[in-house]
Amino acid sequence: MGFRLRMILWIPTLAYAGFLLLGGKNLPSLGQAVYAMFLGALLGFLLATMFTLRQLRREKRIARLRSC
After folding, report:
1. What is the DSSP letter of 63?
2. How far is CA 47 from CA 25, 43, 51, 68, in A?
3. What is the rounded distance in angstroms from the CA atom of residue 37 to the CA atom of residue 4?
4. Which residues contact 10 (CB under 8 A, 6 or more apart)?
5. Beta-carbon count within 10 A of 45 CB
6. Is pTM, for the whole model, over 0.85?
7. CB-side exposure of 55: number of CA atoms within 13 Å?
8. I want to staple 40 with a disulfide (CB 3.0 to 4.6 A). Which of 14, 46, 49, 53 is the partner?
């Protein structure tokens, strides 16, 4: 799975999860909803980056083991 696909999947999913964790339709304030969605999107970006780097390291390690 490529980095762009991970970004497309993780960022909106975690932004929506942040919105739902805040209470969904019963919002305390619009600012809190935007802040929760921003934090969810940031977390999604960081997770997509982390999993992509992990996959690249694993592929390099497997290639190095096969060449020995």
Report:
1. H
2. 26, 6, 6, 32
3. 20
4. 44, 45, 47, 48
5. 16
6. no
7. 10
8. 14
In contact, 18 and 36? CB cutoff 8 Å: yes
Q: Which two tokens stand for residue 25?
A: 């339709």
The set of residues, in sequence order, having a beta carbon less than 8 Å from that of 2 and lying 6+ positions away, is 52
User: If you average pLDDT over residues 46-52, what whole number do you get?
Assistant: 89
| pLDDT, mean of residues 42-64 | 90
Structure tokens at 41: 């999107």
Specify whether the CB–CB gap between 61 and 40 falls below 8 A: no
Listed by start position, the domains of the chain span 3-67
Distance from C-alpha of 16 to C-alpha of 9, rounded to nearest angstrom: 11
Which residue has tokens 């999913």?
13
